[in-house]
Amino acid sequence: MRRGGDRVNSGTLYLIPTPLGEGDINWMLPVAVRQCIAGLRHYIVEHPKTARQFLKQVGGIPPLQNIRMQVLNEHTQLKEFANLLEPLLTGNDIGLLSEAGCPAVADPGAGLVRLAHQKNLRVVPLVGPSSILLALMASGLNGQHFVFHGYLPIEKNKRAGKIIELERDSIVRDQTQIFIETPYRNQRLLDAIALTCGNDTALCIACNLTLASEFISTRTVKEWKRGFPDLKDKPAIFLLHG
């Protein structure tokens, strides 16, 4: 049922989570979600190549040459967003895909979703993998109060200062601090945490979530100092609580 004020003949913007890595698509996406995807002909994607690979995994879709893909990435200008939503205005549904995980979360799709709301267009989030929530669920840390910070600063001193700030906030506010890093910089981030945080601070490392090689462990910084896992070039998410 459409809400009051929505365009009667407009389409729906579906927010489609994609796998966090190679694995069984049946394990990651419910049947109803895959059926919804199979009915779409219009997509907004970060990279068409990986989007096509994902659609092939889903199966039951029309020939790829019959599917229209528009690109939305970090280089897309705000003035282009309205054109991306144009198919909705003519009654066509659109699927918004991220490269991995949930669209519009640490993802350029957020601005597009905001514009859809401003235009009174229907937005429907679909069920699928979210690295943030999966890691929080499995961490054993405070799931009532938490903050996701995205990427921390790259510069050494600024990064150390930010880690100190996060540890302090986690204690004062009883709040789990969640952040990520580019995979090839994971080790540098872990080294910075080991040097900066107190020994009793809890750190959860969640790597390769939903994959056969999944690794999730919560230990104190003192315990981690005995040996960090090998996270070289592996997607990981970090949760900290003092």
CATH-defined topology of the largest domain: Cobalt-precorrin-4 Transmethylase, domain 1
- Could you name the CATH class of the largest domain? Alpha Beta
- Treating each run of at least 4 consecutive H or I residues as one helix, how many helices? 10
Approximate shape = elongated
Low-confidence runs: 1-6
Q: How large, in whole angstroms, is the Cα Rg?
A: 20 Å
Secondary structure class reads alpha/beta
Strand runs, count: 10
Strand order, largest beta sheet: 3-2-4-1-5
Name the beta content range: 15-25%
Order of helices and strands: EHHEHEHHEHEHEHEHEEHE
Largest sheet: 5 strands, parallel
Distance between the termini: 46 Å
Q: Mean of residue pLDDT?
A: 92
Number of domains: 2
Assigned CATH superfamily of the largest domain: Tetrapyrrole methylase, N-terminal domain
Helix content: 25-40%
Q: What's the architecture of the largest domain in CATH terms?
A: 3-Layer(aba) Sandwich
Topology (elements, then pairings):
Blueprint: E1 12-16, H1 25-28, H2 31-38, E2 42-45, H3 48-58, E3 68-71, H4 81-84, H5 86-89, E4 94-97, H6 109-118, E5 122-125, H7 131-139, E6 146-151, H8 156-172, E7 176-180, H9 186-196, E8 202-207, E9 215-220, H10 221-224, E10 236-241
Parallel strand pairs: 1-4, 1-5, 2-3, 2-4, 6-7
Antiparallel strand pairs: 7-10, 8-9, 8-10
Describe the structure.
There is one protein chain. This protein is 34% helix and 21% strand. The protein is an alpha/beta fold and 242 residues long. β8 and β9 form a beta hairpin. α8 crosses α9.
Condensed summary:
This protein is α/β, with parallel strands linked by helices.
